[in-house]
Structure formats: structure tokens, C-alpha cells
């Protein structure tokens, strides 16, 4: 088993399945109660309306942070700051171990070995994973990592001497060759492999806590596969436990996000307000205004001056969007008899973008509106299609209606083809 690799739904967490009697209690008191199971028993965390908390989902590849506030009267959740994170998952410890091997046996050899003996490399990483899981801040005994025979044999053929000689000549003095034919690493050295990754997690949480939008946070829930690591648990407790922030690590921490995703499916309205992670919009034509619009955006058509590539915003980055909140826009076919309207969607991290050609703006999807054919012999008229986009859910949804006929227009939105 590897740290991480769990479900990344970006959904609200739940620390254990609801127990019927306690769920009845929660409903009767109109509060949201979480049962946190620890190794020493059960701890009730009765979170009142207004309480704020951070969920740090530490997985194999990334760490994702969300901040919620409990609302009255039914204990729904409000997202206080857009979800953030970075590539600070458990795989960073694996990369640090690979770099350590490169210092001992040379980077060229490790690269060649991975290419020529991929199965043996997997065996080596599995052996390291087993030892990595036993690492902890209070461990005193060294850790033995077994090298596959293929590694030992391949190194001797490539370099002309054995791995024990390489270890003696290496400047890495905290890794030795044991009499059992294994790499013997001190516990301090193993903990050092965690530090680059763990320090980035601490720094990111620190930066999040410094933001004015998340002041008053009381709880930090550490969840996800990587959160099983005693090294990470200890470091987070040391960094934040003495700052008025209660760090809670549930039992079965690796399954917590999965359980929360399942329970969210039963109650998808629990998160009432979300924060948009990006700014979304489309490119449109606006009337050209000399002095305000750049000359290179000028388009003259049928005697009229237009400004091209104008970014029309649907929702801004970090904007609060309530569940069910809808943004409406109207579109017209470019020519009579047109059966389909295709509208490209653009996104960026900035809030004040003006044109779809600005730095950081990229195409992320497309809206397709399928138009029903007009009646034979009907006089061509300007058709208006009103599209409604919902941004407050876990996915962006779109519906559309033909204004002249009040008929529903088949509308689809595609984010996978880009």
C-alpha cells in the first residue's frame, strides 16, 4: 500500500458514517455534529453555527485545502476561500529517496536501472514504502531497506564493483550496508526525506491561515492517505497545536474523504455556498471605443466598428456562488437556418481580465446549443437563445430556452475535449 492515492472529490468531509441515534440527535438540535474516532476512544466535536475549520486532504500526489463555516439554521456549510493546494503529496518523499540513491550510486545509474529493470525498480520502491510507513519522530532504531538482487547484480556489471563499495566511497554517511545485505538508514535520515514535502504543507497552511477571509478558524482536520504518516502528524501538531488551532486526526484517516464523498451524495445540499476557483467567461464582440480599446482589436463589419476578443465574465475567481445560483446570457445565431451554436468558454486565475488573449487566459470548454429547425415557409426572424449556467454546484451545468417559442433547447457543456 502507498500513502495517498485516495479519492479527490473536493467535497465536504464527514469523519464517520452517521449513527442513527446520533443522527436523530443532530437533527433535533439543528446542528452538525461530527464524531471523530481516535486511537484512544471517541471524541465528540460539537461544532456550533459560526465555527470555522480547515480540511487538509493529504494524498499521494497533492495536498488540497478547503475552509468551511457552519451556518444556521440547519448546519449547512459555506466555503470561505477557494480550494487551494499543491504537489506536496507522499510522492515527494519517494522522489527524495530516489535523489538519495542518486547521490550514492550516481543519477545516471539510477536512470538506467529504472529503464532497464523496471520490475526491480518497482520492488525497490515497494520495499521503501514499507519502511516509510514505519518512520516516526520518536523512533530510535534504524530502518533496513532491502535491495533487489537485480539491483545489486546490475550495479556490479555496470560499475565493476559492488554496492557495499559504493556506500563506503559515498559522501552519504547516514546510510550503511548491513550484514543482512540491506541498506541501513538512520531514523533521522528517514525523517529528513520527509522534510521538503512536509515543510511545503506547513507553509501552505500558514499562508492560508494568514488570509483575512479565514480568520477565526478553530479546527484543522488532517485527512487523506498521507495523513497516516506519523512524521506528518507530529509536524502539523507541533506547528499549529500551540496556536489555538485544534488539530484533529480521525481514525481510518485514509478513508475519511471517501466516506465524506459517499455521504455527500446522500445530501448534496450540505455545501450551500462555494467559492469559484477560477474566473470563467466567453469571448464576445463589443462596440469599439477609440481610446479605450486597443487598435489591433478593431473589426469593421457592415460599416460598424467592433472590438474583438472581449472577455465577458460569468463568475470571478474566489467569488461566492450559492447553491442553485444561475448566470444567464442570451445568444443569437449568426445566420438564418443555423442549427447549432458553439460557444467557447475561457478561464483564468486573475479576476480583472479584459480580453481572451490576455496572459493566463486559456480555453477550458465549450457550450453547444442545438437549435430546432424553423417551420417551412416561415419568415426568417432574429432568434434569441437564453442560456442559464449554474456555478454553485460541484460541476457547471447549463440549460437553454428559445425565447420566441419558449421551447427548451438542447444544451451541453464539454470540459474534456480541451
Give a written overview of the molecule.
By secondary structure, the protein is of the alpha+beta class. The strands form 4 sheets. It has a 9-stranded antiparallel sheet with strand order 13-14-12-17-18-21-20-19-16, with no helix packed on it. It is elongated and about 90 Å long. The two termini are 33 Å apart.
Beta-strand content: 25-35%
> Strand order within the widest sheet?
13-14-12-17-18-21-20-19-16
Distance, first to last CA: 33 Å
Number of strands: 21
The SS-based structural class is alpha+beta
Instruction: Tell me the major beta sheet.
Output: 9 strands, antiparallel
Helix content: 25-40%
Mean pLDDT: 82
Order of helices and strands: HEEEEEHHHEHHEEHEHEHEEEEEEEEEEE
- Gyration radius, in Å: 28 Å
For this structure, the quaternary state is: single chain
- Could you list the spans in which at least 5 consecutive residues all have pLDDT below 50? 4-45
Quick one: overall form?
elongated
Number of helical segments?
9
Amino acid at each position: 500500500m502507498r500513502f495517498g492515492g485516495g479519492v479527490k472529490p473536493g467535497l465536504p468531509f464527514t469523519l464517520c458514517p452517521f449513527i442513527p441515534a446520533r443522527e436523530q440527535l443532530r437533527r433535533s438540535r439543528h446542528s452538525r455534529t461530527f464524531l471523530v474516532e481516535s486511537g484512544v476512544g471517541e471524541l465528540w466535536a460539537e461544532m456550533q453555527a459560526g465555527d470555522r475549520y480547515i480540511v487538509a486532504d493529504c494524498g499521494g500526489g497533492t495536498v488540497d485545502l478547503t475552509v468551511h463555516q457552519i451556518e444556521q439554521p440547519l448546519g449547512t456549510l459555506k466555503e470561505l476561500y477557494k480550494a487551494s493546494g499543491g504537489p506536496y503529496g507522499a510522492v515527494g518523499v519517494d522522489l527524495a529517496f530516489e535523489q538519495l540513491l542518486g547521490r550514492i550510486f550516481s543519477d545516471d545509474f539510477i536512470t538506467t536501472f529504472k529503464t532497464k529493470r523496471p520490475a526491480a525498480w518497482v520492488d525497490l520502491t515497494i520495499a521503501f514504502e514499507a519502511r516509510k510507513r514505519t518512520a516516526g519522530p520518536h523512533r530510535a532504531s534504524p530502518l533496513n531497506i532491502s535491495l533487489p538482487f537485480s539491483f545489486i547484480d546490475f550495479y556490479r556489471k555496470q560499475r565493476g564493483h559492488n554496492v557495499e563499495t559504493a556506500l563506503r566511497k559515498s559522501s552519504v554517511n547516514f546510510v550503511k550496508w548491513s550484514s543482512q545485505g540491506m541498506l541501513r538508514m538512520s531514523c533521522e535520515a528517514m525523517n529528513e526525506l520527509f522534510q521538503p514535502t512536509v515543510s511545503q504543507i506547513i507553509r501552505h497552511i500558514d499562508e492560508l491561515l494568514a488570509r483575512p477571509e479565514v480568520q477565526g478558524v478553530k479546527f484543522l482536520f488532517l485527512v487523506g492517505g498521507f495523513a497516516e504518516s506519523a512524521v506528518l502528524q507530529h509536524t502539523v501538531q507541533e506547528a499549529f497545536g500551540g496556536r489555538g488551532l485544534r488539530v484533529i486526526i480521525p481514525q481510518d484517516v485514509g478513508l475519511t474523504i471517501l466516506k465524506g464523498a459517499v455521504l455527500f451524495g446522500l445530501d448534496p445540499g450540505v455545501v450551500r455556498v462555494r467559492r469559484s476557483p477560477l474566473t470563467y467567461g466567453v469571448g464576445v464582440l463589443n462596440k469599439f471605443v477609440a481610446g479605450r480599446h486597443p487598435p489591433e482589436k478593431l473589426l469593421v463589419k457592415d460599416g460598424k466598428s467592433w472590438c474583438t476578443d472581449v472577455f465577458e465574465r460569468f463568475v470571478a475567481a474566489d467569488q461566492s456562488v450559492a447553491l442553485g445560483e444561475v448566470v444567464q446570457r442570451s445568444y443569437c445565431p449568426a445566420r438564418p437556418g443555423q442549427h447549432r451554436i458553439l460557444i467557447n468558454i475561457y478561464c483564468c486565475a486573475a479576476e480583472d481580465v479584459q480580453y481572451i488573449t490576455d496572459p493566463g487566459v486559456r480555453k477550458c470548454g465549450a457550450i453547444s446549443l442545438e437549435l430546432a429547425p424553423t417551420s417551412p415557409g416561415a419568415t426568417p426572424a432574429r432568434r434569441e437563445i437564453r442560456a442559464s449556467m449554474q456555478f454553485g454546484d460541484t460541476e457547471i451545468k447549463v440549460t437553454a430556452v428559445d425565447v420566441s417559442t419558449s421551447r427548451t433547447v438542447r444544451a451541453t457543456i464539454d470540459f474534456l475535449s480541451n
